[in-house]
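ok so I'm stuck.
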Amino acid sequence: MEHQERADELEHDADRMERESERIEGKIEEVERDWEAKEEDQQVPGAQPDEEESLAEDIEQQEREEQAAAEEEEEEDRGEDGDEGGD
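replied:
not stuck anymore, here's the structure
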């Protein structure tokens, strides 16, 4: 029974870490939205990025989107390979 108890304990820890990760991810998203709103507000001194920083952020965003699209396409390709004979 010792192995099962350890497995249960590890599963509980994994669940706890996943919940904490989701909580932190939500907090990060909240902070990002807040900062983006401040960047748009001319009343917040120092929040507006300079032009070079803004261009760099645009390039990074575009690269992230391209990477996400490529990963999604790879997942779809893998899914199609696994579905061949399943219909």
